[in-house]
């Protein structure tokens, strides 16, 4: 969204907090402004705070080639406070002065050109876009084309929601009258008539379909080659075998390919998280989908984006989530009572958020819940082997270790491991634990004991360590890092 904004605008106002200084998003914004070759006006905000340090901000920005006028550069810096309103007029004057120096001008005649900043669906108005006009004058009744959609302008309104009759270059304007919802960032062009607009949109859709068909053909060709190679290998494998033997071998292979049991199928499905994304505006959905594209933990749990779109959660979304056993995530959207009841009846989760970071955190938690728990070992006690001997039980000799508990306690019902020179050579349970000649269940710190293992082939050595531990299941966490 920042990149798109930098490409559309003529001047970037870079807002940096005087108390926080240069942050990661500040550096990103500077890079976008440089890529778009757009000049910067620096607004140092929160200067009303006691801990504010505007000079520190200016010095930090030097590392990113943003040199303020105080340091011999050409970037204007204005100290402001959005809370109290201090110096906001000075910021406006600095912006106007820079615009005059750059001689920024636009042609208000000729066909309209502009850019879609945002798009959303309004219940009363239908598809609505907010746009910046870059050339020409937009009027009611104008025929526009943007992406794979076209419009006959029915209504226009300004940033305050007030109806306007025309929009000149540099004006932000809301446009009503679109047949479909354009995407944020699409270029707006005026055409002479509705038939011309339909022809342009149809051609663009045809071009897109042709590109998709090329990609599909490429995938089909790759699959065909795979099948041919597999078929060739199978022919080589059975080529010199008698037909009766060949039939028997194929029967054996089919027999080994058993269908998945219900439990195995459920386990497989638990490692896939199908999701549906619904957002208030196209830009929000784009931002969320772009974050999904950074997902790199498919080896843990596969993240499957079933559907995404603009608008409130609908019955179709619920039906889709039920079919794929997925979760619906909504950003700044509403869910009607009827839809909520339908989702509850079908066992579909609907999670609504108003902050994008919270939505991603919720998604991470959902991914965590799909992962199998990890087992952690928690030590309960440690003992060192001081002597080794064997006792006769029936006709066999059983190795016994004479131990002293150095830390914690040994509990017979827990698990044990034998460590020699730092290496674990055995894990399992005890067959006996004795204090003197008495069978006991617990031996505490400082006490001596004799113990034997469930596995009789293991031999003890003086100096070995015996660790008593318990295993606890700990919820696993996804390794995916969305970057914030």
From TrEMBL:
Principal cellular location given in the protein's record: mitochondrion
Keyword Amino-acid biosynthesis: no
Coiled coil segments of this chain: 210-237
Signal sequence residues: none
Top-level taxon of the source organism: Eukaryota
Cell compartments where the protein resides: Mitochondrion
One cellular component (GO) term of this entry: intracellular organelle lumen
Cross-referenced InterPro entries: EF-G-like_DII, IF2_II, P-loop_NTPase, T_Tr_GTP-bd_dom, TF_IF2_bacterial-like, TIF_IF2, TIF_IF2_dom3, TIF_IF2_dom3_sf
Domain Tr-type G stretches: 1-105
Single GO MF annotation: GTP binding
The keyword Manganese is annotated on this UniProt entry: no
Keywords (A to Z) from UniProt: Coiled coil, GTP-binding, Initiation factor, Mitochondrion, Nucleotide-binding, Phosphoprotein, Protein biosynthesis, Transit peptide
Self-association state and partner proteins as the record states: Monomer.
Reported function: One of the essential components for the initiation of protein synthesis. Protects formylmethionyl-tRNA from spontaneous hydrolysis and promotes its binding to the 30S ribosomal subunits. Also involved in the hydrolysis of GTP during the formation of the 70S ribosomal complex.
Official protein name in the record: Translation initiation factor IF-2, mitochondrial
Gene name, Swiss-Prot/TrEMBL: LOC111148108
């Amino acid at each position: 969204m920042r990149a798109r904004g930098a490409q559309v605008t003529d001047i970037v106002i870079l807002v940096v907090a005087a108390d926080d200084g240069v942050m990661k998003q500040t550096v990103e914004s500077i890079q976008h402004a440089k890529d778009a070759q757009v000049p910067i006006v620096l607004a140092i905000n929160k200067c009303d705070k006691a801990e504010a340090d505007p000079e520190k901000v200016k010095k930090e920005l030097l590392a990113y080639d943003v040199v303020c006028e105080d340091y011999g550069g050409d970037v204007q810096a204005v100290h402001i406070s959005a809370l109290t309103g201090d110096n906001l007029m000075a910021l406006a004057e600095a912006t106007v002065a820079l615009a005059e120096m750059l001689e920024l001008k636009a042609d208000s005649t000729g066909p309209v050109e502009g850019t879609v900043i945002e798009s959303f669906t309004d219940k009363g108005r239908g598809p609505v876009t907010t746009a910046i006009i870059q050339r020409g004058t937009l009027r009611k009744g104008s025929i526009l084309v943007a992406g794979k959609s076209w419009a006959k302008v029915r209504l226009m309104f300004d940033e305050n929601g007030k109806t306007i009759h025309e929009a000149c270059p540099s004006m932000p304007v809301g446009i009503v009258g679109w047949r479909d919802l354009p995407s944020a960032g699409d270029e707006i062009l005026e055409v002479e008539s509705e038939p011309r607009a339909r022809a342009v949109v149809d051609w663009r859709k045809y071009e897109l379909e042709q590109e998709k068909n090329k990609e599909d053909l490429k995938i089909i060709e790759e699959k065909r080659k795979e099948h041919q190679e597999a078929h060739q290998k199978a022919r080589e494998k059975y080529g010199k075998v008698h037909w009766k033997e060949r039939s028997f071998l194929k029967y054996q292979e089919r027999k080994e390919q058993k269908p998945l049991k219900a439990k195995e199928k459920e386990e497989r499905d638990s490692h896939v998280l199908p999701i549906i994304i619904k957002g208030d505006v196209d830009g929000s959905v784009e931002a969320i989908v772009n974050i999904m594209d950074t997902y790199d933990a498919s080896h843990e749990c596969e993240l499957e984006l079933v559907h995404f779109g603009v608008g409130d959660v609908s019955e179709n979304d619920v039906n889709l989530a039920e079919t794929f056993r997925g979760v619906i995530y909504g950003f700044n959207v509403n869910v009607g009572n009827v839809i909520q009841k339908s989702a509850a009846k079908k066992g579909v989760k609907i999670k609504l958020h108003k902050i994008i970071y919270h939505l991603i955190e919720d998604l991470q938690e959902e991914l965590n819940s799909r992962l199998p728990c990890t087992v952690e070992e928690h030590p309960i006690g440690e003992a060192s082997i001081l002597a080794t001997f064997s006792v006769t039980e029936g006709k066999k000799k059983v190795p016994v270790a004479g131990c002293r508990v150095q830390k914690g306690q040994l509990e017979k019902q827990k698990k044990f491991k034998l460590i020699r020179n730092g290496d674990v050579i055995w894990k399992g349970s005890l067959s006996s634990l004795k204090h003197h000649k008495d069978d006991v269940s617990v031996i505490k710190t400082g006490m001596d004991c004799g113990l034997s293992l469930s596995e009789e082939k293991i031999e003890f050595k003086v100096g070995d360590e015996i660790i008593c531990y318990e295993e606890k299941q700990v919820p696993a966490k996804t390794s995916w890092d969305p970057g914030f």
